[in-house]
Amino acid sequence: MALHIAVEDPAQPEIIELLRDGEEHSAELYPAESNHHLPLDALRSTNVRFFVARNGSGRAVATGALVLHGPWAELKRMWVVPDARGQGVSKAILAVLEARARSEHVAVLRLETGVESHAALGLYKHAGFRQRGPFGDYREDPLSVFMEKELSEHPG
């Protein structure tokens, strides 16, 4: 699938719909207290780099955000529309997020995902993320998996 991945404003109707779809999917798997979505206004903060992947016809098919916290950053709002899954979209947007993190001098990428999010867990493990304990404002949650990846100056 031909993709164009770039920083975009999340406050576009098409993107808001994608974000809602991701929230609805999470709500089917986890109770509200185990869902940790950043709201739209937070996604527009100066320390957030919000990316959209668009297919060859310009349709938004995935989102992902990098939230900068000085020496570390958190991945948020990773979501691929169902009909674009299995085509390398999540791997592509993750690679762009990692590259941007490196360019922003981030040493460690962190994330929280759910125990039932098997595709996401597989993606992150394959990309070199390792499990760790809660970070930031997160608390221990049996439905959450916390992961991180140390970034080197030179990938690979």
Task: Provide structural commentary.
InterPro entries: Acyl_CoA_acyltransferase (IPR016181), Bact_Acetyltransf (IPR050832), GNAT_dom (IPR000182). Pfam families: Acetyltransf_1 (PF00583). This is GNAT family N-acetyltransferase. It comes from Bradyrhizobium sediminis. With 156 residues, the chain is an alpha+beta fold. It has one domain (3-150): Aminopeptidase, CATH 3.40.630. It is built from four helices and seven strands; from the N terminus they run βααβββαβαββ. The protein has a seven-stranded mixed sheet, sandwiched between helices. Strand 4 (72-80), helix 3 (89-103) and strand 5 (108-114) form a beta-alpha-beta unit. The two termini are 25 Å apart.
Instruction: Count up the helices.
Output: 4
Low-confidence stretches: none
The average pLDDT value, as a whole number, equals: 92
Helical content band:
25-40%
Order of helices and strands: EHHEEEHEHEE
- Mass-distribution shape: globular
CATH class: Alpha Beta
What is the number of domains? Answer: 1
CATH topology: Aminopeptidase
**Main sheet specs:** 7 strands, mixed
Q: Determine the CATH superfamily.
A: Gcn5-related N-acetyltransferase (GNAT)
- Based on helices, strands and strand pairing, what is the structural class? alpha+beta
Alpha carbon gyration radius: 15 Å
Identify the strand order in the major beta sheet.
Answer: 1-2-3-4-5-7-6
Distance between the amino and carboxyl termini = 25 Å
Give me the CATH architecture, please. 3-Layer(aba) Sandwich
Amount of beta strand: 25-35%
Strand element count: 7
